[in-house]
Amino acid sequence: xxxxxxxxGIILLVYDFxxxxxNVENKDSHSYIALISAILPYLCFLLVIFFIIKxxxxxxxxxARHERLKRSVADTENEIRTLNRRQHxxxxxxxxxxxxxxxxxxxxxxxxxxLLQADPIKAPLEPSLxxxxxxxxxxxxxxxxxxxxxxxxxxxxxxxxxxxxxxNVSSAxxxxxxxxxxxxFKKTAPNLAMFKIDEREDAVKLALQYSDKNIDPVCEPVNAxxxxxxxxxxxTGGDGQATLLDDKWVVTQKAKVFYE
Length: 260
Description:
The chain crosses the membrane at residues 30-53. By secondary structure, this protein is of the alpha+beta class. It has helices at residues 2-25, 31-89, 93-115, 201-209, 211-214, and strands at residues 155-158, 166-168, 183-189, 192-197, 219-221, 232-233, 240-245, 248-253, 255-259.
């Protein structure tokens, strides 16, 4: 661009001299206009030189500012790393606040660096510099949190409970058996389970035949028992709880039952 501006000034200078020279020699016509035409190229040339000098100074300032911003980025990143190392050696919220503040400052510097071109004519901004960098990338990696191991859901069925409010483990069946199964158990842990009366017709009918033996030891009625009841339901959230002790499932919380 400097060469183009200089070449433009030279062309104007040559043209004006060629145009003004005959008028200067002919003093009878337009002598003042000829004089101005002779001086004008020099003024244009000086104006071109002025813009060239101004542009050169502007580029120098831009380059200097670009270098200062790059140094600021490097200094801020080093300070964040130093605070991270201190934070691992001594806990406290002061370092966290300082790191967050430096992170904001680093983002602002990089945005300014993104908007600034080191040389507006020759050197566009380096694309390798990110505008905003994750501050966590400067921190030392933290170990992942341990995940809880979930026990796979296991369903099994039991029949008549013992009088003491327990069930024999040996009587458990993995599949429902009509005429034998009454209670449906679901494991929540290796030694814990929730239970309720299975709502299938065969299970309810078997439970109601001898309610004092099949229901009362492990269930608590919500309403009064009726001999005419045809259904036994467990309300939402009314499942009983049992713990596995040796060869028995011992009821720790009775199930709720509603007679219909």
